[in-house]
Amino acid sequence: MTDASEKAPQQGRSHGRLKVQVTAVPRDLMEEPRRVKGAWEARIVTLFPEAFPGVLGLSLTGKALDQGLWRLETLDLRSFGEGKHRNVDDTPAGGGAGMVLRADVVDRALRQAMAGAPMDRGRWPVVYLSPRGRRFDQAQARAWAAAEGVTILCGRFEGVDQRVLDHWDIEEVSLGDFVLTGGEIAAQAMIDATVRLLPDVLGNAASTEEESFSDGLLEHPQYTRPAVWEGREIPPVLMSGHHGEIEKWRRAQREELTQARRPDLWAKRQGT
Ligand SMILES: C[S@@+](CC[C@H](N)C(=O)[O-])C[C@H]1O[C@@H](n2cnc3c(N)ncnc32)[C@H](O)[C@@H]1O
């Protein structure tokens, strides 16, 4: 495997929250975020660094990014390209449609993306986003959140030369059984699911304990005011103030929903 400490990071870009104050003095839109020592970090290798932070810059994940509770580093794959035109791809060996990202170009980017990161994959997973990969789920988000950070390679075109994936022993991870144009949307979805599990990111930690998948069940239905809407009432038990009864009702709803909608989850749960 490549020695990740050979090169220091140079072409990466750190993302802070976009500031939207009106100011008379022009200034950089992207400002260096606050740094919290040991904060969880996502390093993304992509041909489209401008796609980040994207939705991750909004709401809770954006606020946490701004507060330095996690860090986002993008590495522009193009800057590792070959020659004057910074070529990153070539035609598939054996023929066929489209283009394939070159092994040597991706390797250079990964070496830089891994600079200073632990090579123990438990502490720092290295993944390639791919429809062929293992489907991302809540357990994987929890494992990533428990690590120190993650390096994510976003593919484009027909994908990446297999040799660089084998060389780096990269784990392939999929967002689902469909084909996206590139890995950037998948990366944002997976980082979002991970960052919200980091300590201090969600104000009310209990909300992650009760939501879907936390104990192998889907979440119960939620209601809020008005008490009657379009002739539909909030289930009376939720207005009763009896916390024990409310808990019982919610539990029954979670089990019923999981059995009806996700027999696979239900069977797994019964098995354990
Ligand atoms: C057009 S796709 C390539 C699909 C590839 N030729 C195949 O059939 O498996 C381009 C890139 O989008 C990303 N991508 C597409 N679908 C994805 C999915 N379901 N999950 C994660 N990444 C995906 C991958 O990084 C992939 O390299």
TrEMBL record:
Tree of life domain: Bacteria
Protein name, per record: tRNA (guanine-N(1)-)-methyltransferase
Main location: cytoplasm
Catalytic reaction list: guanosine(37) in tRNA + S-adenosyl-L-methionine = N(1)-methylguanosine(37) in tRNA + S-adenosyl-L-homocysteine + H(+)
NCBIfam families referenced in this protein's UniProt entry, alphabetically: PRK00026.1, trmD
A GO biological-process term: methylation
Enzyme Commission numbers on file: 2.1.1.228
A Pfam family per the record: tRNA_m1G_MT
Keywords on record: Cytoplasm, Methyltransferase, S-adenosyl-L-methionine, Transferase, tRNA processing
Entry-linked PANTHER family: TRNA (GUANINE-N(1)-)-METHYLTRANSFERASE
Locations listed in the record: Cytoplasm
Stretches assigned to the tRNA methyltransferase TRMD/TRM10-type domain: 43-267
Root EC class: transferase
CDD domains in the record: TrmD-like
Similarity annotation: Belongs to the RNA methyltransferase TrmD family.
Sequence intervals crossing the membrane: none
Residues the entry annotates as binding S-adenosyl-L-methionine: G155, L175, G176, D177, F178, V179, L180
SUBUNIT field: Homodimer.
GO molecular function, one term: tRNA (guanine(37)-N1)-methyltransferase activity
Organism: Paragemmobacter ruber
Function text: Specifically methylates guanosine-37 in various tRNAs.
